[in-house]
């Protein structure tokens, strides 16, 4: 549940998904959406980053650290390849992120039914893409959802290794039978429901 409201926008709570390693630290939107369903919108308009100790991280200040700072993807800090194994802790720290979402995300009323448009193993996994569902069920879903949920058809939560974005959900088989059968549903802006 968002922790801070403004007139037009809401700010989510802080999220700390990843832990720093020799590679770096990553706080991706897709991973946060899977772990905290409906606590962050699918298409944030802004992102804030800070160390877990509370020091703000500005986009321009960390360019030299090979960082990606993107509200639609999240934040990733990658340790430079020339850093030796002894020095990795001195570069990327442990980060947390929070996102700014449209105010309509705070109290979603316009939620679609669940859709299961693909079966596992028919194409190397299970893919519930917004574009496919829009074509299969015209007029039932908005083209720019503000949130998306995914779960197995039996109601179990998804694995953290899956990918959930504004464009849908994907599970790619790493071995036969890896992906279950999933379903998704979308939250649309209230204006879309009232116009329908």
TrEMBL record:
Localisation: Secreted
Domain WxxW, residue spans: 12-101, 112-188
Chief place of localization: secreted
InterPro entries associated with the record: CILP1/CILP2, WxxW_domain
UniProtKB keywords: Glycoprotein, Secreted, Signal
Pfam families named among the record's database cross-references: Mucin2_WxxW
GO cellular component: extracellular region
Name of the molecule in the record: WxxW domain-containing protein
């Amino acid at each position: 549940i968002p922790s801070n409201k403004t007139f037009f926008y809401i700010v989510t709570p802080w999220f700390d998904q990843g832990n720093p390693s020799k590679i770096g630290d990553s706080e991706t939107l897709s991973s946060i959406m899977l772990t905290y369903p409906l606590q962050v919108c699918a298409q944030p308009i802004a992102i804030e980053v800070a160390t877990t100790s509370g020091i703000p991280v500005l986009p321009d200040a960390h360019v030299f650290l090979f960082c990606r700072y993107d509200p639609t993807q999240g934040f990733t800090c990658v340790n430079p390849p020339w850093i030796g194994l002894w020095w990795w802790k001195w570069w990327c720290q442990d980060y947390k992120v929070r996102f700014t979402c449209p105010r309509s995300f705070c109290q979603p009323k316009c939620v679609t039914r669940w859709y299961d448009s693909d079966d596992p193993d028919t194409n190397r996994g299970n893919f519930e893409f917004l574009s496919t569902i829009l074509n299969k069920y015209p007029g039932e879903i908005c083209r720019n959802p503000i949130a998306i949920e995914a779960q197995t058809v039996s109601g179990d939560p998804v694995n953290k290794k899956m990918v959930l974005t504004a464009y849908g959900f994907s599970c790619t088989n790493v071995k036969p039978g890896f992906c279950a059968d999933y379903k998704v549903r979308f939250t649309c802006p209230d204006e879309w429901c009232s116009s329908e």
